[in-house]
TrEMBL record:
The keyword Signal applies. This is Metallo-beta-lactamase domain-containing protein. Transmembrane segments: none annotated. It comes from Pseudoalteromonas aurantia 208. SUPFAM superfamilies: Metallo-hydrolase/oxidoreductase.
Length: 368
């Protein structure tokens, strides 16, 4: 990591955008070519598949099967009602307790949103979207049911007044939401991939844009922005004009990795070679069938990626907040359980309810 960082070009551009100063941290090893960003590796799984034996396994109960015809406008139509038999209330934690004293805790807030409270007192949130999509995404949700939330978020942004930084993985509407961001406390720092600031109207604090394999320090925690295998777009004609990626938080005692949306590729082995084994990995396990597999991971892909990363604790996410993929919302966790049973990974798998937290510091200490 040090050798690569020595080649990193750090440039601070004081830009006037919504009265905010934007700090830009670039890596000269990954320049933009033709105004478009590209993945370091192509996705391992190209085409529609099947790509794995699990693709032909029926993970649904008879009471969850309902055939539906495609609408005039559909999103990821698979011929089934993807939420039939799903009850969002059962996904909510009955004992959610979120407060500033939970040092060494990770709390799942739904989809890709996590509250990460480091043992040094720093508190972060990833990809906060606590309401419906905004912007063009809101327009789409009026005609496509799949773009509407299946249930309310367990908390509001203004209840997280102890959070001092937000990290966003990319600009898709289920990961970037200006309305949610601007409800955080004033002076909350916002960390974004390169060229993403134009997609937000952020008023609450300083903005830092980062390139792959760059790092900065937030209070007492080192933040690394790392690659992913995905794409970006926030409008009709801006595909791949902003970067996407993953985040690593290192407080000197524990490392926590948030993968963002990503497909499986050799990139995870590259990341491990640069930063070493990782203590806690927050991994996506949804929206993987058909052609989406090159930029989203199936549960077994996520397990393999975590093995590549040298993870000690694996926490899945993505299930149950939206029905954005082709699969039924009840499938990913069952497919993950099958993958863990068959692959027998050496790490701890901790599945959370929405609003549920885990003391990861204690979990790591007891597993050593």
């Amino acid at each position: 990591m040090k050798n690569r960082l020595l080649l990193t070009l750090l440039s601070t551009l004081c830009l006037s955008a919504c009265s905010q100063n934007i700090t830009r941290i670039e890596n000269e090893l990954f320049p933009v070519t033709g105004k478009k960003y590209q993945n370091i590796y192509p996705g391992t799984y190209q085409g529609r598949g099947p790509h794995h034996a699990y693709d032909d396994v029926d993970f649904l109960l008879p009471t969850e099967k309902k055939t539906v015809e495609p609408g005039m406008i559909s999103f990821a139509h698979s011929g089934i009602d993807k939420t039939f038999g799903f009850e969002y209330e059962k996904l909510l934690s009955p004992t959610a307790e979120i407060n500033s004293r939970n040092a060494g805790h990770i709390t799942w807030l739904g989809h890709a949103s996590f509250l990460i409270q480091k043992t040094n007192g720093d508190a972060f949130v990833t990809d906060p979207v606590f309401g419906e999509f905004d912007g063009y995404g809101w327009v789409g949700s009026k005609v496509i049911d799949d773009l509407n939330r299946l249930g309310d978020a367990p908390i509001k942004a203004d209840q997280l007044d102890f959070v001092t930084a937000i990290m966003v993985s990319h600009n898709h509407y289920d990961h970037l939401n200006s309305e949610t961001l601007n409800r955080f406390n004033g002076n909350t720092a916002l960390y974004l991939p390169l060229d993403t600031a134009d997609d937000v109207n952020y008023q609450q604090g300083p903005i830092t844009e980062m390139g792959w394999y760059t790092q900065t320090k937030h209070n007492n925690t080192d933040l690394h922005f790392l690659p992913a295998n995905h794409t970006s777009s926030h409008g009709a004609f801006d595909t791949d004009e902003s970067l996407w990626g993953s985040w690593l938080m290192n407080d000197g005692k524990h490392t926590v990795y948030f993968a963002g949306d990503t497909g499986y590729s050799p990139i995870f082995k590259d990341i491990q070679q640069q930063v070493g084994d990782i203590d806690v990995c927050l991994m996506p396990i949804v929206a993987y069938p058909r052609g989406a597999r090159k930029m989203h991971m199936s549960p077994e892909d996520a397990v393999q990626a975590a093995l590549d990363l040298g993870c000690k604790v694996f926490i899945p996410w993505g299930y149950g907040t939206w029905a954005l993929g082709f699969e039924h919302v009840n499938e990913p966790l069952r497919r993950l359980a099958r993958a863990v049973q068959d692959m027998k990974p050496h790490f701890i798998v901790k599945t959370l309810l929405v609003g549920e937290g885990v003391n990861y510091a204690e979990l790591l200490n007891t597993s050593n």
